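Human:
Focus on the backbone:
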Amino acid sequence: MKEIEKNLNGTGMRIGIVQSRFNTTVCEGLLAACRAQLGKLGVRDDDVTLATVPGALEIPLVLQHLAQSRKYDALIALGAVIRGDTYHFEVVSNESARGVGEVQLHAGVPIANAILTTDTDEQAEVRMNVKGAEAALVAIEMANLLKAAL
């Protein structure tokens, strides 16, 4: 049996990040943690492209354009959807996740989904550093896995 080993070497990889501007504090925290982890994995700042969008619902469309360009080894979605008093939370959470998943499957480019969905601002702030760093790890691991599997 041939087993593909986990590989977190991001040297030479090109990464696209799409970040929501809604819930700024949390999204900036996600981005900072993600960029720091990408650097630790060998990804150069010059090889990272950042596009910002108004909110989580706009993330999938920009991911799709980046994926279709074939310029990126992996993509990362960063955002925060925090529950309010209306059903809008469920719509945004579900539709942004569905959109990210569809882009990944149709384009064949790995996408790390770090769009947080929490009940409170405090929960999002607690999770932003871990999830931002995890997104970088997922993106690099999946890009290497797909390369090794070809």
